[in-house]
Write a structure and sequence with these properties.
It is built from 15 helices and no strands. With 418 residues, it is mostly helical. The N terminus is likely disordered.
């Protein structure tokens, strides 16, 4: 890849358009190479939540203890938060393409490990969580680097849509496979197949090597004169937005069926509500980045995402059982937008690839660690009050309080470097 001069602070933010550059945007790849990149990108995206959606449907059949189920529900966001900083190291060492390929191999190893009994299931979940953390951080950088600006939103939407589709497909298959084979290990082993396909799909990207200019030199040039992201309002705004959205997402993922049962639905309808939520998440996850990437200012999208989530939660509290599914759809769309929109914000607000990586790393580290507390806190509030109204109201208030903080993430108020 030819090396162009690193953009200055005055020109880098554009990075909405421009020629190939180590720190700026990449030109569209040739047709054949572009097709291979999209295929690999989709296969990798399909895997990023597959392993995490298996345990809920399997738990009754496998006889997992409540402590095991709780631990396996807590580990994914904890690991994705704790290992997010590893992505910057991987990217510096291998580059975006090779880093994602290595992450794909680690996903395979983790998926295999999860088949090896209860201890392997826990250890493998940690391994998969670490690999997924790397993918989560590097994907927005890869999209900015390898796709033209007008396709960036569509690619982040495709990432979110594929993520949800992979998780939903495997979650739907685990119970039939477990019943047919009499083994929960066989059902969990389904995740090995898409993981192998993802690693194979990213293999053609191994031809992309780091430029001869050292990664450290490039990083130093791109970040000269810029404060550490942890000392900028932008980074904290992104962290707040992603963190609060992810907190709500994992809380509802854990407790929505129980909330719907308490609202008056039977257990079958409550289970269907979880599927409806996931469908809404997929729709919002695809649509929000596509719409947001078309504009230089994403504040309306940030505001709409938070308000749609708050409306969905309020509807669940106030609506009768017959109207609950409508509010589940609304909530799913908002939560999906909240999971996917940050990828566009990292790429838009970042001055160069290193800045995008730093913003993504900080937001995801703080956001996933915050999200890990959501299901636990909701359970505590429910246990203390005997109702789901208080946890849902607390989430709604948290989303609304986040609005003034999160809006900074939606625009560039000045050309000054952060």
């Amino acid at each position: 890849m030819p090396v162009s001069p690193v953009p200055t602070a005055a020109t880098a933010p554009d990075a909405v358009a421009g020629p190939v550059s180590v720190a700026g945007r990449g030109a569209p790849p040739a047709a054949g190479a572009g097709a291979l990149l999209v295929v690999g990108f989709v296969l990798l995206s399909l895997n990023t939540r597959v392993a995490f959606g298996q345990i809920g449907p399997l738990a009754p059949l496998a006889g997992f203890s409540s402590a095991t189920v709780s631990l396996l529900g807590l580990l994914p966001p904890l690991c994705m938060g704790a290992f997010a900083p590893l992505a910057a190291v991987v990217r510096r060492r291998f580059g975006e393409e090779r880093g994602l390929w290595w992450a794909g191999l680690i996903l395979v190893a983790g998926a295999v490990l999860r088949v090896l009994g209860a201890a392997g299931l826990i250890a493998g979940t940690v391994v998969v969580g670490a690999a997924t953390a790397v993918v989560n951080v590097i994907v927005p950088v890869l999209v900015r680097k390898r796709f033209p600006p007008e396709r960036g939103g569509a690619m982040m939407g495709l990432y979110a849509l594929s993520m949800g589709a992979g998780s939903a497909l495997v979650a739907a298959l685990v119970v039939p496979v477990a019943r047919a084979t009499g083994s929960w290990q066989a059902a969990v082993g389904l995740a090995v197949v898409p993981a192998v396909l993802a690693a194979a799909g990213m293999a053609p990207q191994l031809r992309h090597r780091l430029p001869e200019v050292s990664a450290g030199a490039v990083a130093g040039a791109g970040s000269a004169g810029r404060r550490p992201v942890a000392r900028t309002g932008l980074a904290w705004s992104l962290t707040a937005f992603f963190g609060v959205q992810t907190l709500a997402f994992y809380t509802l993922l854990a407790w929505l069926p129980s909330i719907l049962v308490r609202a008056g639905l039977d257990s079958g309808a409550a289970g269907a509500g979880q599927a409806v939520l996931i469908c809404g998440v997929a729709a919002g996850g695809f649509t929000a980045p596509v719409l947001a990437a078309r504009r230089a200012d994403q504040r309306p999208h940030v505001l709409a995402t938070l308000l749609v989530c708050a409306a969905g939660l309020t509807g669940l509290v106030l609506a009768p059982a017959g109207g609950a599914m409508l509010w589940v759809v609304v909530l799913g769309v908002g939560l999906g937008a909240g999971q996917a929109l940050p990828g566009v914000l990292y790429a838009r607000r970042g001055r160069d690839h290193d800045h995008v990586t730093a913003l993504s790393t900080m937001a995801q580290t703080g956001g996933f660690l915050l999200a890990a507390t959501g299901p636990v806190l909701a359970s505590v509030l429910h246990g203390a009050t005997g109702t789901w109204t208080v946890p849902l109201a607390a989430l709604t208030v948290t989303l609304l309080l986040c609005v003034p903080v999160a809006l900074r993430a939606g625009h560039d108020p000045s050309p000054e470097p952060e």
